[in-house]
Amino acid sequence: MFEIVPLEPYSDADLNYSDDNCRANKEQNDSTARPEIESKIDNMENYDVVLIGHPIWWGIEPRIIDTFMESYDLSGKTVVNFCTSGGSGVSSSTSNLKELSPDANWLDGYRFSSNASKDDVRAWIESLELGLELQ
Question: Looking at residue 135, what is its pLDDT?
Answer without folding.
Answer: 67
